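Quarterly update, task 2.4: adenosine-5'-diphosphate-bound model.
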Amino acid sequence: MKILILNAGSSSLKYSLFDMAAGHTVLLSGLIERIGEADAGHRYRIGASDPLQQPLSCDHHRDALQALFALLTETVLPDLSELAAVGHRVVHGGEFFREPALIERQVIAHIEAAIPLAPLHNPANLLGIEETLRLLPTVPQIAVFDTAFHQTLPDYAFRYPLPGRLYTEHGVRRYGFHGTSHAYVAKQAAKHLGKPLAETNLITLHLGNGASVAAIAGGVSIDTSMGMTPLEGLMMGSRCGDIDPAIAFYLARTLGMELDAIDKLYNKASGCLGVCGENDMRAIHAKAEQGDDSARLALAMYAYRIKKYIGAYYAVLGRLDALVFTGGIGENDAWLRQTCCVGLTALGIAVDPAQNAAPAKPAATISPPGAEVAVTVIATNEELEIATQTAECLTRGASTAGDAAKSPCSAAPITE
Ligand code: ADP
């Protein structure tokens, strides 16, 4: 079964073609960037080949898709009708989707209705969907949502202590993101531990440019650090994470900052970048090693804030089988993994320095033998998770769209 995964951004198109029958082999993967600009570019790999490049004139997402389909037919998929499905990454499914959905008119309407919740991402995701439907009208298209995995949060975890009508009328609540990554590593962690997922309690830490943590009880997400937007929670590369909401009022009243400037400050100029002038973790370490105090502070804050969430989510879960590190930082930064876990032996959490130094890929335990909680490093694979969920949805043949009469901002329960 061949499945094409598409992740359409405002000026980019990322893709992977999987052969699900052949051990989930990636046949072709690539990125078309700067769509609409004079210097649009297309980088790709055929299987595990070295990266290749193609010149591209690309005014619109349709041109990008046409270039991709031409490349597919020239290389690994001469007949596009062999595609079993296209799986689209969609950032926000509001309250309508707790599972992937076969795309039809009503599903598109729900994704459109969630645009106010993800104004930068959902329109681009929709553009990818609409153009693909136009170019491949006979191939089933499936939407896989970043928010879906966290739709199992109980109301006391997803509600904000704000007036109720802001939730019921305007959808102001916590949704959570990185759902495909948390879902994927949870499954892999259970497999690695040799336990059924339904009996496994986990804290999963996705630490990349964006970062989030999830508390997973019996395979089900019961809390997560990102909220109504991906700004809440952990300190990130350039996002502030949890701060006093009143700082915005202070900035507006005393510095005269406009809303858009505060938005930009919180999302693009805060986090590690704001504290030490770097957002790439490798550059922060290099700066700290050269004796830069702001870089040392950024590292200490980054680790401290993760540790606070580990403690909080341990309390939420009551019993923990494993702590899972993933994402570019989680998978590669031994210092960070060690530092987040210092002083947690009372919770049964400890890191073995030798195991931590170079954990085997794609899954390794880095806690000492016999430790109460397994500390693990699991390589995430969001594309494969989207492909797997797409294949499962295709097999089920049903969408899980909610009640069409309700807006995704409503408090309506999800119908399955
Ligand atoms: P994205 O969220 O964009 O997918 P990634 O998951 O690829 O990002 O993570 C990017 C982050 O991973 C960057 O901060 C990068 O510095 C960090 N990273 C990658 N390799 C290492 C490493 N060996 N040590 C520390 N950090 C690393």
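Highlight for this quarter: The longest helix spans residues 293-317.
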